[in-house]
Amino acid sequence: MNPTVQVLLSALAYIALKVLACAAILVVGWIIAKAIGSLVDKGLARARFNHLAQRTGMDRWTGRYTPSGLVGKLVYYALLLFTFQLAFSVFGPNPISNLIDDVIAWLPRLIVACVILVVAVAIANAVFDVITNALSHFSYGRAVGRIAQVAIIAFGVIAALNQIGVATTITMPVLVAVLATIAGILIVGVGGGLIAPMRERWERALNKVEEEGTRVSEHLKTRAAEQRAARTAALSKDRGDTMVQAKYPGEKPSDVKPTAKEAADKLTEKATALRKDMQGPEL
């Protein structure tokens, strides 16, 4: 056989073996990834992870998937990515393997960013509930709670973007632009023609704060009076349960209930006195 043809056939056989090994790794890895993803989904569902996500409000971000199903899908795709890395590494150093290596090295940062975002959303929802319930008697309570919620989520998004390495290219210019705009408005407005309107707004704001302070004070006093009245009523009820009401004119209630023997002796004495009164004086 021609040596050139023999070398060509050997090279083709070598490439065919690599292709078969790559295909086998892909098939086995796909089966394992699918099985593990399904197990993660079922395990989290049994651990009531979906209920926890519903209470924290994270189920609104999962789309058509359940929270446990979304985590299972993420695990499935992560294992599939590792499978691709292992399969293409059969061919030696190549651009596809280098790209997959970079993506895999970036995955831990993405996971940390997702955790930061989830924690920020949970904290924001809790703060919103606390502020809304604490200021439920006031018209601005829900607005204050919503502002605090949005601010916490914004900080969480900035931290998450910083974790994945895009904060310096996206968030920083946006933050600088927003702060510069606010500073320009304050400098031009407050230092220029908005002095009189700002003074009027500050006076209205201070008057509103004073009115709300008075309202809060009255509300606290009313709550304290209601609590004292409730404690007094409870003490009166407890005291009334241990008192004996007067049954005859001129008789006062007693703080201690008499025993059965004392009550019987008292009734006997009254009956004897009444009998003597009916008999009249002896002759």
UniProtKB/TrEMBL annotation:
User: Would you say which domain of life the source belongs to?
Assistant: Bacteria
**Biased amino acid composition, Basic and acidic residues:** 249-283
Q: Which Pfam families match?
A: MS_channel_1st_1
Q: Which UniProt keywords apply?
A: Membrane, Transmembrane, Transmembrane helix
The keyword NAD appears for this protein: no
Renumbered to this chain, region (Disordered) spans 233-283
Q: Membrane-spanning residues where? A: 12-33, 74-91, 103-131, 143-164, 170-196
What protein name applies here?
Uncharacterized protein
Organism from which the protein derives: Catellatospora coxensis
